[in-house]
Amino acid sequence: MIANLAADVQAFTSNVFLVEGDRTVLVDPGANFDVVERIRARTDDLDAVVLTHTHRDHVGNLEAVTDAFDVDVWGYDPAIEGVDHAIGDDERVTLGSDEYVALHTPGHKDDHLCFYAEDRGILFAGDLVFQNGSFGRTDLPEGDRETLIESIDRVLERISPDLSEMHTGHGPSVTTDPYDHVQLAARMARQA
Ligand SMILES: [Zn+2]
Fold first, then answer.
1. Over the stretch 53-66, which tens digit does the pLDDT of each residue have?
2. Rounded to whole angstroms, how far apart are CA atoms 45 and 96?
3. Residues with beta carbon < 5 A to ion ligand 1?
4. Tell me, what CATH number does 116's domain have?
5. Segment 97-128, tens digit of pLDDT
6. Ligand 1 center to residue 128 CA distance, Å?
7. What spacing in Å lies between the alpha carbon of 112 and ligand 1's midpoint?
8. Hey, CA dihedral for 144, 75, 125, 35, is it positive or negative?
9. How far, in Å, is the centroid of ligand 1 from the Cα of 138?
10. Is this prediction's pTM over 0.85?
11. Which structural domain, as residue segments, surrounds residue 128?
């Protein structure tokens, strides 16, 4: 079960996905709103926090969450403050009741990860791509358009065309032909 706890939040925040199951995980704690209260409304036992990347709008609430639930934090680069454990490229990680593979996908930020559950056809895309062919900013520090395009291409090679759900760092999740949205982003990123 995947819920976006920031769906109706107007503050400057990323989406925040609570993935419930055998291992209840928060994918990105977001920023500038009371996410702890929203987690508590759904569950008392959060098992872990997993980060797509460490931009402020994704991790502003991190300390509030780790304080409230006494959980550890997984991300690509444990040298970054707040990241307790590394998830390497191609490493397996359990979110909810499903096994995902982590895909290191720089271009928007160096520590960016996507998470893909092949069995379920679910992709957490972070800020790599969004609905309707939008893609992550590359004008911030560590941003690089060519690298972003390579990362999108790599995800396209990895995911199945019958992908069923894509959950992005901003905007609505895509549940109708999400593969086409990733393909479109690969084209748009080359044109922009
Ligand atoms: Zn970002």
1. 999 999 999 999 99
2. 12
3. 55, 127
4. 3.60.15.10
5. 999 999 999 999 999 999 999 999 999 999 99
6. 8
7. 8
8. negative
9. 9
10. yes
11. 2-191
